[in-house]
Amino acid sequence: MGKRVAVVLAGCGVFDGSEIHEASAALVHLSRGGAEVKLFAPNIEQRDVVDHLKGSPAEEKRNVLVESARLARGNIQDLAELKAGEFDAVIFPGGFGVAKNLCSWAVDGKNCTVNEHVNATLKAFHSAKKPIGLCCISPVLAAKVFPGCEVTIGQDKNVDGRFPDAETASAIAELGCKHICKNVNESHVDKANKIVTTCAFMCKAPLHEIFDGIGTMVQEVLNLA
């Protein structure tokens, strides 16, 4: 019987929702791993809406759950309905929507607040000693909710210009967590907390390398489940 995995989305589109390639990569690797997957997103208004063609704000409002349904092909539930007891693991793809909609990191950095249902979901899986997978910017959720945990967002220095958001590692350290430097095709496993992280698009890398890195994260999550 395959592992039961919940995947939590933050909208649809890198600049104001879930990063589509990351979400798709996670779902492909979960499918390959024989997992039974259900998708969730909070039923809240997006912090903002970005015109992805122009890269500028759009004067409209969108709902995170409704937008996430695009990625889920319509098969998605309100995050408030997620019950950790029904799953073996949970995974959070990245994208600016994580930092805008699932928490306020995009505005407040390490002083951010985490959406109540996201916070409850993370704590429920952690308390049940069930693995949590996070990629790209989403490891900051774990850093905020679980002081002392270990995560990676890639490198803590902008090596060869490939890690433009490396300063995020310093903010993670300021929250009392340990940042572990990893390459894009690797993931880090915090065995004590059962938290698995990989940098994905926090690194400027070819798409297949990001896809492979997410694959290592998914596999480690399934191994721990």
UniProtKB/TrEMBL annotation:
Gene3D superfamilies: 3.40.50.880. InterPro entries: Class_I_gatase-like. This is GAL3A protein. The lineage of its organism: Eukaryota, Metazoa, Chordata, Craniata, Vertebrata. The gene is Gatd3a_1.
